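Following up on my earlier message about tricarbonodiimidic diamide. Here are the inputs again, as you asked, copied directly from the submission form:
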Amino acid sequence: MPVIKAQPFGFPFETKSLGLVMIDFQRDFVEPGGFGETLGNDVSQLRAAIPAAQRLLSAFRNAGLPVFHTRECHRPDLSDLPPSKRNRGAPKLRIGDIGPMGRILIAGEPGADIIPELYPAPGEVVIDKPGKGAFFATEFGDHLVSRGLQHLVFAGVTTEVCVQTTMREANDRGYDCLLATDATQSYFPQFKAATVDMIVAQGGIVGWATDVDRIVEALNG
Ligand code: TIU
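Thanks, got it. Here's what our run produced:
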């Protein structure tokens, strides 16, 4: 079995059961005027993950391996948006309000779409999810099962919110999870560092972590 150099130790995988999960690389999180900025964040920080995420995406595409993209967004009638989420905090604009990229975090609006740099290719599965985890209220888990996947590589934003939640959901469902550390970013550098640490702590209690070069190296075999 091939092994990717990683923390806390090598990540063994089978190519036929390996997939890439690109979490929420949406304009609403990465570009000015979207959800991330309405929460008071400096969204430019997230752009640091884009070059490594592009290399990771290309490596999976070149290897002919499955790629999944997720988008955090809600139905236009807000029927899948609980008040506990809509009313949280004191943002300038709330989910569903009209911003410069359309309605904030609403399916089909320009802001909810994936950034052009990492746009899904034809045939790649795109999962719209109302929660932070990609398994909650979606068909994501069914896609993984139907393709016989077991080993998942994760990239995306933000590290400690939707990426970590989805990795924990996947871990509980029996998947081996590897975080691509340079292809993920947080608005809070200390939260990203803590998340990587807590994923690999205790012998990989949630999963493994490594950088994109190590993953590409292993895929090129
Ligand atoms: N606010 C924040 O850091 N993240 C989110 O709200 N969603 C995702 O992480 N995608």
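One observation from looking it over: The mean pLDDT is 98. Hope that helps, and feel free to reply on this thread.
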